[in-house]
Design a protein that fits this description.
- This protein has helices at residues 2-12, 23-33, 49-58, 76-84, 97-110; strands spanning 38-41, 67-71, 89-92.
- The chain has 111 residues and is mostly helical.
- α2 (23-33) packs parallel to α3 (49-58).
Amino acid sequence: MIQKLIRVAMRSEGHEVHVASDGHEGLELIRREQPAVIFTDVSMPGLDGYQLATELRADPRTAHIPIVFMTASVQRSQLEEAKRHGATSVLSKPFSMSALRSRVAELTSKS
């Protein structure tokens, strides 16, 4: 459901959106499409968000892309873990579409 909401919100802003069903598919998609920003859940089948971010940061083709972790649990330890794995930012679930739009605008203006 969250994927659908994000897709609608971002497309209405003129952004191209690609969605993967698991971490392995996401990794392939990111390497192929080279998105401006990556939003990933921490908990996913295949590669989890931390593993995905570690793979992306180790690859010179994707190391520069901002990664936003989406998680329901935003305790200090999880924030630190996300940063250790290369997160640019964390978006706490549930989040508003305006918060999502703002985060995308902030991260794409830096690139």
